[in-house]
Amino acid sequence: MDCTKLVNKVIYDREKIREKKPLIHHITNYITANDSANITLSIGASPVMVDNPAEIKEIIQMADALVLNIGSLSSGQEGVCLKAVELANKRDIPVILDPVGAGAISIRKELVISLLSDYKINIIKGNLAEIKSIIDIPTSVKGVDSEDTMGGAGEAARELAWKYNTITVITGKQDFISDGQSIVIIDNGVPLLAMVTGTGCMTASLIGAFSAVEGGSLYAAVGGVLTMGIAGQLAARQAVGPGMLRYKLIDEVYHINENKYKKLAQISF
Amino acid sequence: MDCTKLVNKVIYDREKIREKKPLIHHITNYITANDSANITLSIGASPVMVDNPAEIKEIIQMADALVLNIGSLSSGQEGVCLKAVELANKRDIPVILDPVGAGAISIRKELVISLLSDYKINIIKGNLAEIKSIIDIPTSVKGVDSEDTMGGAGEAARELAWKYNTITVITGKQDFISDGQSIVIIDNGVPLLAMVTGTGCMTASLIGAFSAVEGGSLYAAVGGVLTMGIAGQLAARQAVGPGMLRYKLIDEVYHINENKYKKLAQISF
Amino acid sequence: MDCTKLVNKVIYDREKIREKKPLIHHITNYITANDSANITLSIGASPVMVDNPAEIKEIIQMADALVLNIGSLSSGQEGVCLKAVELANKRDIPVILDPVGAGAISIRKELVISLLSDYKINIIKGNLAEIKSIIDIPTSVKGVDSEDTMGGAGEAARELAWKYNTITVITGKQDFISDGQSIVIIDNGVPLLAMVTGTGCMTASLIGAFSAVEGGSLYAAVGGVLTMGIAGQLAARQAVGPGMLRYKLIDEVYHINENKYKKLAQISF
């Protein structure tokens, strides 16, 4: 892979999102659903949040991608997740899985492993504790946040991707993306981002938007993560605190452009 | 009708809201509930969000209006909606229905038609795809967002209002309000508003507040839509993006006044 | 008690929160969950929101405090509340109860009384209508908001605290805190705060963070209430309206420091 080529692909795909305005179906948590919807709009896609078992079939018929976030999993939602992924696989639309809390809560870990084993998950995006937990690497975890430094992240991303034939994204101080072979590292993150809840969920929404317009999940993962990283960096420069950062993030995603991608992207392999 | 008279009525009612501080009971979705609550406070009313079947009876006894939004309808909520409207009708308090997704999801459309057929719905407020779908006019729809230009909006608003003896509001590039005979057009909207999720839900909350203080639903619909339109216009002038717009909207609703209504209202018939 | 000593304790505990980064488990409502999570992060703690009965056991094993908010109580959540408090009591971690709506809705009042009677609730924090209602003092109430002036607040706080062997916090124009004997009054509130939904919920989250690092619930209550009061005061100075106030609050909690506590604290007995 080549850094310039990757950035050019992201720029191209971002224009495609604005043109096509893909519908991104979210099954997500009530804590960050509003931010996920707003960031989806900001990148130029159209969000829909539907998790009623009686409704998802119709929505998935229209959807261009499915973002599955298990951050407030209720008993009912488990079945809905499986059903939604099954329907998405049938239509061959990309599925992005955000395994929130899989590092801390055993039924979430089990659900994630079921999903990865029995269905096509195009991209899984978690923090280091979540990803390590799924492939049974010991880790330290605190609720839904990872306490890890990024040690072993590249290898963990590669291992999970290889094992389940998917793209793995690990977000944190640095972001790691792997297809099971290569590892892409994106280094645009800023510490203040960790003070805002839902930045991971928002990244998954952006990945969902990118996945809905192009042919390769690795590019979609890079597109979503890079957009979040650059927007976060620009937002943090102006924000006096995490409250301001939260709304600036949305504005910076809305105003991202070719020039910013080219100038700011920190990608290595 | 007369434009100046309408604006004066809105100004008068807005003062009444501040004096009376009516309680606006919401049964609504988890994605935009926070914005709905905050905009209700900003106009001077008091929001309450209760959807537990065991609790709604007590709340409706105190409520001055009921705003029903089916944007995250769960199986349980269907029964709650019917029960809530029945109780609201018994007490003769205004009911505002936001048929989110009725253009895309058949069980939502069915629920909306049941509500309109079997109960008194004072005001229904949706986008063009939702309203057309309810009266079986073919339309294009994308999830919960309408893809339509505003073609045929006036007629659709009039037809639904006439058929179900209600007031219909269609929001979009322009806003159309009809009582089944006249059509009021409000043209204060700005494109950036479409980049913020929940502006429709917030408009319904404002309509709910206006409906709780005066005698005619048409005036309440105009009051809510006009307030949102002017606040949106003023907010968009200052906002660098949709993140900022979201909070500025709340501030502008809070600071709306006689002068702004008179100077900015764009109403035609 | 002594005012300077109290403020110094708050300053010390706030540093402890940053060092320890305690995990604050919330069972809370969908309307204000995002703000609760973000304010928890801003003070330096780590939020987790889990209310699935199958998941709470694992989370409470890791948690440093439990914040229970019944603002969108569903039938399922009742059982979860009881279970969560039982588990928290077993582990002897502090439990903060926010009895949202207990002044208006009888099943909420009953649940709160059960919790207070049968379990250890370290701190209960409500508005005046809620607290009075729990100890059967007649009051006026409007939905989930209190209409009371603060008349009788000190006595009500003391009575409830004494009766149930807990710490009572009553928030409003002034804030009252009692351990059943002394009454602490904090007078940093500003009227604009009442125009933002969820400030009470956010205060409970802050109290939760303070309760997780020190040995006395009275200090934790003072810490949370004082932090919210000072942050609110500083935020209101800059905010042009309630929309801006909402995000400034988060920023001001993030930037609170020794100097601001010492200079601005308005505490009396």
From TrEMBL, chains A, B, C:
InterPro entries on file: Hyethyz_kinase (IPR000417), Ribokinase-like (IPR029056)
Top EC category: transferase
EC number(s) per entry: 2.7.1.50
Keywords noted in UniProt: ATP-binding, Kinase, Magnesium, Metal-binding, Nucleotide-binding, Thiamine biosynthesis, Transferase
Classification via Pfam families: HK
Named cofactor requirement(s): Mg(2+)
Molecular function terms, GO-annotated: ATP binding; hydroxyethylthiazole kinase activity; magnesium ion binding
Gene Ontology biological process terms in this record: thiamine biosynthetic process; thiamine diphosphate biosynthetic process
This protein's record includes keyword Metal-binding: yes
SUPFAM superfamilies: Ribokinase-like (SSF53613)
Pathway participation: Cofactor biosynthesis; thiamine diphosphate biosynthesis; 4-methyl-5-(2-phosphoethyl)-thiazole from 5-(2-hydroxyethyl)-4-methylthiazole: step 1/1
Top-level taxon of the source organism: Bacteria
Stated role: Catalyzes the phosphorylation of the hydroxyl group of 4-methyl-5-beta-hydroxyethylthiazole (THZ).
Family, per entry: Belongs to the Thz kinase family.
Protein name: Hydroxyethylthiazole kinase
